[in-house]
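Sample pair:
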Amino acid sequence: MSDRGVKSAGAMVQGAKSRIQNLDPDQVAKELESGEALLVDVRDAPEREEHGAIPGALHIPRGMLEFRADAGTPYHNSELRPDRRIILACASGGRSALATDLLQEMGYKNVANLAGGFKAWQESGLPVDKV
């Protein structure tokens, strides 16, 4: 058993959010417009099919992120590089906060979280694609 103690999912998300960069939808939109940032959507496929997706977002389900981000696995996605600007998004910002924190642990230096997630993106009136 770990000596780190037991934490709730909410406590884990709050801890992650305190260690990462959290961007509002307008900040993310500006970074995406510049063409230098890669947006990674960590939601499950049914969520994307039901609600749509942010245009241009790369879909990597949360459960596969570590393997897609690790160049030493056969599942690696070459779009993911430790030196690249990567912004992560989920439905409301919790899973993507955990994912952003995880990528930092894996040596990714320039990562951020879409605060409020896809829901905040939609509420800001930003474009959504059907999947």
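The mean pLDDT is 96.
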